[in-house]
Design goal:
The chain has 16 helices and ten strands. By secondary structure, it is α/β, with parallel strands linked by helices. Among the domains are: 181 residues, Rossmann fold (3-Layer(aba) Sandwich), CATH 3.40.50; 44 residues, no CATH class. The strands form three sheets. The protein has a five-stranded parallel beta sheet, with helices on both faces. A three-stranded antiparallel beta sheet has the order 5-4-8, with no helix packed on it. It has a two-stranded antiparallel sheet with strand order 7-9. Helix 7 crosses helix 14. The relative contact order is 0.08. This is PIN domain-containing protein. It holds the Pfam family PIN_4.
């Protein structure tokens, strides 16, 4: 009994301790705690829903930048509107599909411009820029040459100044981002956009000696020297000719030809790249002229004194003289012809522009300016006529008060005594500006 009594008090505290632990772990669910848990769950769900909505809005906004996202889960009442929108979507891309399909098939040809085009054929470049059919490249050598020619005599000085002003405007327009997203048609050459000299020299094809050659003084043999010493006679040195090599290319042409070769090699498969040179029909006289200013920098758009060590093409074949007055008797050569021949030797494609093309470009510019003037006149007169029609329909008695001041101004010179016949000649404000407009068109021939 004692053991049982002693065991009872030992067995009783064990279940009481386990119950206290269970009660401590499992708290009673009160209505306040239930409300709190529900509020926390609702707040968590609301936060997740807001995040998902933001992600969906961002995705839909990105899609709207390119195309309208498809609508779904619409009631049957809006089925007609959805069909109309689909028909509009199908009809709208049709006109845009034709140019997009034509652009990759036929890329714009590349035109590398020479200095002769900017000085003597600027209207042709203006026409090309307005048409936007070509990708016009201005080499860095051409820009530096124009800067050097600013100190030239007045006939060339005015043309160079006009060309530089036009180039500045085109460079500013090319830097602006285009609304259509297309590449600009007027591009200046970058520093790395030119082929290396080794790559250019590999393409050189030497012409035959009959076409071009370089003279050199043939060194006499030892026997000939002994004979000359014995005889004591000063004989003229023997002159011989050798074929051209790639290093005979003048340094003034290398940068331009390297630029033209770069765009020719890096063009697309169906894209043409040409070096554009202007050829004048006037033949340069063979009479020498005294050099003016610094003649060390030679310009291939103009003329250059032909040195005895330079190449001798068939058309300018002239033997060098042994006297010291060679510089005064040097022959003036058209450098555009020389540049074109060197470009052909390096297999560079050339486009020759003649004065006939220049006259066509001038006529095109005149017609374009006339169209612009007509459009401006229509925009000026049509809104004025609508205002007069609205005022006359609203208040017929007020037409005389509004129209007589403007009509009497024009009637003082033409018809002072017949004010009622003036309404028939209402559109005559353009008559006195006809002569001045023609002069303005001629003055704005080289200005867009």
């Amino acid at each position: 009994m004692a053991n049982q009594q002693d065991g009872k008090p030992n067995d009783q505290p064990a279940p009481s301790s386990s119950r206290t632990k269970q009660q401590a772990s499992i708290l009673p669910i009160t209505p306040d705690r239930e409300k709190m848990s529900r509020a926390l769950g609702a707040a968590f769900l609301q936060h997740k829903v807001q995040q998902l909505e933001r992600n969906v809005d961002d995705l839909s906004f990105r899609r709207d930048l390119h195309q309208i996202p498809p609508r779904s889960h619409h009631p049957p009442a809006n089925s007609n509107h959805s069909s109309r929108n689909q028909s509009k979507k199908k009809s709208s891309p049709q006109p845009d599909s034709t140019p997009s399909s034509s652009k990759p098939s036929s890329p714009a040809p590349i035109k590398v411009i020479d200095t002769s085009m900017l000085i003597h054929a600027l209207p042709i470049l203006k026409k090309w820029v307005r048409e936007e059919k070509f990708k016009i490249v201005i080499p860095l050598d051409v820009v530096s040459e124009l800067d050097f020619l600013k100190t030239s005599p007045p006939p060339i000085h005015g043309l160079v100044r006009e060309a530089t002003c036009w180039l500045d405007k085109q460079f500013q327009n090319s830097r602006k981002p285009s609304s259509t997203g297309d590449q600009p048609c007027f591009i200046p050459q970058r520093t790395g956009d030119e082929s290396g000299w080794e790559e250019l020299s590999r393409r050189f094809v030497a012409p035959p000696l009959e076409e071009a050659s370089i003279p050199f003084i043939k060194a006499p043999s030892e026997d000939e020297e002994h004979e000359r010493v014995r005889d004591g006679e000063d004989e003229e040195p023997q002159i011989d000719y050798r074929a051209l090599i790639s290093t005979d290319l003048p340094h003034q042409y290398r940068s331009l030809l390297q630029c033209a070769l770069f765009y020719q090699l890096h063009a697309q498969p169906k894209q043409e790249s040409e070096l554009v040179i202007f050829f004048s029909d006037k033949q340069i006289s063979s009479t020498p002229a005294a050099p003016q200013g610094n003649t060390q920098h030679n310009h291939h758009h103009y003329h250059q004194n032909w040195k005895p060590t330079s190449t001798h093409w068939k058309s300018e074949n002239s033997l060098p003289q042994g006297s010291g007055n060679d510089q005064e008797e040097e022959e003036r050569v058209d450098k555009t012809v020389d540049l074109s021949r060197w470009a052909e030797r390096f297999e560079i494609k050339i486009q020759k522009v003649h004065p006939a093309d220049l006259t066509q470009a001038k006529q095109w510019i005149r017609s374009y300016n006339d169209k612009l003037k007509q459009q401006q006149q229509q925009q000026q007169y049509h809104p004025h006529s609508h205002r007069l029609g609205s005022s006359s329909s609203s208040n017929p008695h007020a037409t005389s008060n509004h129209t007589t001041p403007t009509r009497t101004i024009h009637s003082k010179k033409s018809l002072p005594g017949t004010p009622r016949q003036i309404p028939a000649s209402a559109p005559k404000p353009s008559a006195p500006s006809s002569s001045s407009s023609a002069a303005a068109v001629d003055k704005r021939l080289f200005v867009w």
